[in-house]
Amino acid sequence: MIDLRALREDPDRLRASQRARGEDDTVIDIVLELDERRRSALTSFEQLRAEQKSAGKLVSKAQGDERQALLDRAKELSQQVKEAEAEAGRLEDELNAAVKRVPNLIEDEAPHGGEQDFVLIETVGTPREFDFEPKDHLELGELLGAIDMERGAKVSGARFYYLTGVGALLQYALLNLAMEQAVEAGFIPMYPPVLVKPEAMEGTGFLGAHADEVYRLREEDLYLVGTAEVPLAAYHMNEILAELPKRYVGWSSCFRREAGSYGKDTRGIIRVHQFDKVEMFSYCHPDEAHAEHLRLLLDVELHRVPGPPARRTVPQRGERQERTCRHPQRDPRDHPVDRRDPGEPPAGRRLGPGTEGPAEVPRPRGPRTHPLTEEPGRSGRL
Asked: With 90 as the cut, is the pLDDT of residue 253 above it?
C-alpha cells in the first residue's frame, strides 16, 4: 500500500497521480483526514489509559472519602478508555480501507487514455500473409488432438478444458523452459501452495475491488490464488530481511472466477478458470526497485523464444487501476500481432513504493551464478 508518511509529506504528488489515471483525487484528502483523526484518537486513548493507571496506583494508598472519589474516577476512566480504544480501532479500519483505494504513483511517460491507448515497444517477427482464412487456436488444437473443450465443459463446466497429447507436452515444455531460464538468471525455484490465508490474499490486493474474481473455501477460510505472486509475496510476510535482494520464481496452477467477463473471449482457452503460470518475484530495497524491476523484464526474455510473431506493449495509466496493491511499474505485454485484445499475456509489475511507466537500463553482463550450486552460469542473452 501507499506509505502514509510519503502521502503526508507530498500529497500533491499523489493527487496529480490520481488525476493522470482519470481517478478522483479527493480520496487523498479523505485519507489525510482519517489519518489525522486516527492519530488524534490514539493520543486521546493513550492519555486516558495513562491517567487510568495513575488513578489505580493512588487508590491503594487512599482512605475514606478520597478513596471512594478515586474509585469513582477510575470507573469513569475505564469506560472512557474503552470508548477511546473502540474509536481508534474504527478509524484505523476506515483508514486502511481508504488507503487501499489509492493506486501507486505513476511516471509521466506512462501513456494516457483508455485500454486501446497502449504504447508499442517493439514487434518481434513478421506476421504471415495467408491466401485463405486461417484457423484459430481452438480449431487447430482440436485437429491436432491438443485441446478438448467439450469434455472439459462436461467434467467441470464452462471455461474449463483438457490439454491432451501434444497440447499437454507443449504446456509442460513451455513451463519448464520458463523455469529453466529464470533459474539460470539467478532466481530460486519455488513450488508454492495455491491455497492461502486471507491475510496473504489481502496483502497482495486481491480482496478489494477484485474479491469477486477469487475462489474461496469458506469452511477453511482459504483462497485459491489467481497467480503465484500471492504466495511468493507472502513467503516473507511479517519477517525482517537482513539481506537483499531475494529472487524467486514460482510455478503454480492459477484459479480465477472471471466474474464480470461474461461474453468476453468465450471461445477457446484464452480466458479460463484454471491455468498454469510461471511468476518471477524479487524482494529488494525500495531505492533499487526500479532497476530490479527492469531486470525482471530484460534478464529473462521469454518473448525471444522462437514462436509466432508478437508485439510488446505498455498499457495506459488507468488500466488495472483498482488493484491498488499491485502497483504496476512497467507492464509489458507480448501477444499475437493479429489479435486486437492483449488478453492475459506475460506481464511485469512492481509491488511497494515505486512508479509506473516505461524506461530502459543496460543489460547485466558477465557470468551468472546458479542459485543452487553457486557455480558460474551461462552469460549473454537468454
From this structure: yes
Domains in the chain and their CATH numbers? 4-99 (1.10.287.40), 119-377 (3.30.930.10)
- 313 forms beta bridges with 120, 333
The 10s digit of each residue's pLDDT in 71-100 is 888 888 899 999 999 999 999 999 988 888
Which range (152-156, 207-211, 269-273) has the least confidence? 207-211
Cell 478438448 belongs to 148
Tell me the three cell numbers of residue 237.
Answer: 510476510
The answer for residues whose C-beta is within 8 angstroms of residue 322's C-beta and 6 or more apart is 103, 208, 209, 210
Spatial distance between the Cα atoms of 133 and 104, rounded to a whole number of angstroms: 44
The pTM score is: 0.72
Lowest mean pLDDT among 11-20, 174-183, 261-270, 328-337: 328-337
How many other CB atoms are found less than 10 A from the CB of residue 194? 19
